[in-house]
């Protein structure tokens, strides 16, 4: 895993820099962009698995994930500042301003890969070899791809992962819809300027210094309660936006109210993205008791793949709704029907998706306590403990998280004691 991060460092520096060289044709940028996607994916998938590889402790993994989200948010803010600096220095219409921006971030990305490789680690090689399937070492290319495809699809057999994906996709799609419609909502719903809308969106930066709050809430409340709290406050924020839309507030009162509501809303909407990535490192442990294998890479790849497939759904839906209701792009004034389409899509579209996510969150039971029970049971089985001696609590937790009967978990081949006894019986 970490070796891929290491070799990704020079590859990112080369490919990402090539992407920002001006004067290339269509095919040049298409090919380079595809190469960038391949290299970035090669780095990010192993990177996303590192908390699961580095420790089994719930709080330590949560801290790692929160730290990762903090730096992700911080660098997103820096992008705008650095890009603006080069444009101001070299001129808005100078293509090399964008080249300088691209090269700067290629260098930073490359350095970050080296730092990650140096100061992280993965599971001992003997543990990895112990769970490997010897037959897979002699597969041809077609067999390898077929095995990989089946392995990716099999991740959906894990109940906790299915719930996790529903929560992730509903949450982020709801916020994609909100982000896509928000400026239209502020401009045509409230009659304010686009600069005001941009300013309100920029209040999301409040989530960066408050990232430790997310970690504190996650470790104290657990994923279920955090989801319900965050989604509930998102719905409350949408209700506040709608009430302000219906009321005839003065300009100054409206601006103050929008600043307060937007600050609170934008902080908690971040939970739709941050909580799933805090939860993700614990999913492979649920899979391990089902398969006896460590498959962090498959789960990271599946999560990224499904997200990429669905990333444009909100934009397509928003465009279709607005077009069907007579929304005219670039117009200073919209019809009442088009304005209502914007308002109702943002309020009720985002709200319904968030409400569905909240309903699923109520049934999600992977937290610090259940994870501890799960890990203890895996360690007991690894040490040669018999499945017949499982405690009622461990059995109930394992069945709830996996969605399978306990008798179908932990293949006999992984338990040396039971394997030997089974062989003697035969």
Give me the secondary-structure category.
mainly alpha
Low-confidence stretches: 420-426
Q: What does the overall shape look like?
A: globular
What Rg is obtained from the alpha carbons, in whole angstroms? Answer: 25 Å
Largest sheet: none
H-E order? HHHHHHHHHHHHHHHHHH
Helix content: over 70%
Q: How many helices in DSSP terms?
A: 18
Number of strands: 0
Helix and strand arrangement:
Elements: H1 2-19, H2 26-54, H3 58-90, H4 95-119, H5 125-130, H6 141-154, H7 159-189, H8 194-202, H9 211-246, H10 251-269, H11 271-279, H12 283-291, H13 296-310, H14 313-324, H15 336-361, H16 368-382, H17 392-402, H18 416-425
Task: Explain how this protein is built.
It is a single chain. Helix content is 77%, strand content 0%. The radius of gyration is 25 Å and the shape is globular. It is built from 18 helices and no strands. The longest helix is centred in the middle third of the chain and has 36 residues, at 211-246. By secondary structure, it is mainly α. α3 crosses α11 and α7 runs parallel beside α13.
Which descriptors would you attach to this protein?
426 residues; mainly alpha; 77% helix; globular; disordered C terminus
Structure summary:
This protein is mainly α and 426 residues long. The chain contains 18 helices and no strands.
């Amino acid at each position: 895993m970490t070796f891929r991060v290491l070799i990704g460092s020079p590859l990112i520096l080369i490919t990402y820099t090539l992407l920002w060289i001006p004067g290339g044709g269509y095919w040049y940028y298409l090919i380079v962009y595809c190469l960038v996607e391949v290299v970035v994916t090669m780095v990010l998938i192993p990177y996303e698995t590192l908390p699961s590889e580095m420790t089994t402790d719930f709080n330590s993994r949560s801290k790692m994930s929160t730290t990762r989200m903090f730096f992700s948010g911080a660098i997103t803010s820096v992008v705008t500042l650095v890009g603006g600096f080069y444009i101001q220095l070299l001129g808005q219409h100078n293509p090399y301003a964008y080249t300088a921006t691209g090269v700067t971030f290629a260098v930073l990305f490359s350095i970050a890969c080296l730092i990650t490789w140096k100061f992280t680690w993965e599971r001992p090689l003997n543990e990895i070899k112990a769970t490997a399937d010897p037959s897979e070492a002699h597969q041809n290319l077609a067999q390898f791809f077929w095995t990989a495809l089946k392995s990716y699809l099999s991740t959906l057999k894990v109940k906790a992962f299915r719930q996790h994906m529903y929560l992730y996709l509903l949450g982020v799609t709801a916020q994609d819809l909100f982000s896509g419609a928000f400026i239209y909502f502020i401009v045509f719903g409230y009659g304010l300027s686009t600069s005001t809308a941009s300013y309100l969106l920029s209040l999301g930066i409040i989530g960066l210094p408050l990232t430790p709050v997310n970690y504190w809430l996650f470790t104290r409340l657990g994923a279920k309660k955090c989801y319900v709290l965050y989604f509930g406050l998102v719905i409350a924020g949408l209700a506040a936006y709608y009430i302000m839309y219906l009321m005839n507030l003065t300009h100054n009162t409206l601006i103050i109210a929008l600043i307060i509501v937007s600050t609170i809303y934008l902080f908690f909407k971040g939970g739709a993205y941050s909580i799933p990535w805090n939860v993700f490192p614990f999913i492979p442990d649920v899979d391990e008791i089902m398969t006896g294998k460590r498959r962090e890479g498959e789960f990271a790849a599946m999560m990224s793949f499904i997200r990429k497939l669905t990333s444009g759904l909100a934009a397509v839906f928003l465009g279709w709704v607005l077009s069907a209701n007579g929304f005219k792009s670039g117009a200073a004034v919209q019809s009442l029907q088009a304005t209502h389409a914007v308002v109702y899509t943002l309020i009720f579209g985002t709200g319904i998706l968030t409400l569905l996510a909240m309903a699923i969150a109520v049934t999600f039971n992977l937290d610090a306590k259940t994870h501890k029970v799960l890990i203890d049971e895996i360690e007991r089985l690894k040490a040669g403990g018999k499945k017949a001696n499982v405690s009622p609590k461990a059995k109930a937790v394992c069945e709830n998280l996996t969605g399978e009967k306990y008798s179908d978990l932990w293949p006999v081949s992984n338990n040396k004691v039971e394997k030997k006894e089974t062989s003697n019986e035969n």
